[in-house]
Amino acid sequence: MAVNLSDFDTKCKKTVEHFKKELGHVRTGRASTAMLDGIQVDYYGTSVPLIQLGMVNAPEPRMITIQVYDGGAVEAIEKAIQKSNLGLNPSREGTLIRISIPPLNEERRKERIKGLHKMAEDARVVIRNHRHETLNSIKKQVKAKQASEDDERRAEGEIQKTTERLMKEIDQMVAGKEK
Fold first, then answer.
1. pLDDT band at residue 116, thresholds of 50, 70 and 90?
2. Which end of the chain has fewer beta carbons closer than 10 Å to its terminal beta carbon, N or C?
3. What is residue 1's predicted lDDT score, i.e. its pLDDT?
4. CA nearest neighbour of 42 among 82, 88, 1
5. Is 177 helix (H, G, I), strand (E, B) or coil?
6. How do residues 162-175 score in pLDDT, each as one tens digit?
């Protein structure tokens, strides 16, 4: 009986997709609406994602605008943006909030790169944990005579190739974001 590696592949792909999504939240010198995705706003006693309270746009490379649906939420949105760890200062004009994205200075850039490498290492650790779990599962199958030792060796090779490919993919994403 052959060993099934689809579960391992699925878990690893989800990890890489999550990392890619997290990369979108990292602030660079350009405006990106994804920067605001993780911000939660205290809206009438309930924590609500910012993107549900207004239309978020990036009309210019260094500007994000939020057209707020409810005028009563403008102040709460401003506070949430200021409390976020993005270093942004919103300004409002009625129900329109403008966020100017300042260029990163050298110190902030180095800080962001450090954080980026930590995020990448976290993703690598998760993939290694998936590899470890899958290899242990295969060893249990071999012990229980549900798989042969040849299947185990073949699966180990495939798992290692997949792991190396995903590590390279993460490194390429980090290098692209660093630039």
1. confident
2. C
3. 42
4. 82
5. helix
6. 999 999 999 988 88
- Predicted TM-score (pTM) of the model is 0.64
64 token code pair? 């994000």
- CATH superfamily entry for domain 6-23+105-178: Ribosome-recycling factor (1.10.132.20)
User: Of 3.40.50.720, 3.40.640.10, 3.30.1360.40, 3.30.420.130, which CATH number belongs to 29-100?
Assistant: 3.30.1360.40
For tokens 């997949």, what's the residue?
Answer: 162
Instruction: Give CA–CA dist 60/50, Å, rounded.
Output: 20
Q: Are 147 and 4 in contact (CB under 8 A)?
A: no
What contacts 51, CB < 8 A, 6 or more positions away?
A: 36, 37
Q: How are the residues of the chain apportioned to helix, strand and coil, as percentages rounded to the nearest 5?
A: 60, 15, 25
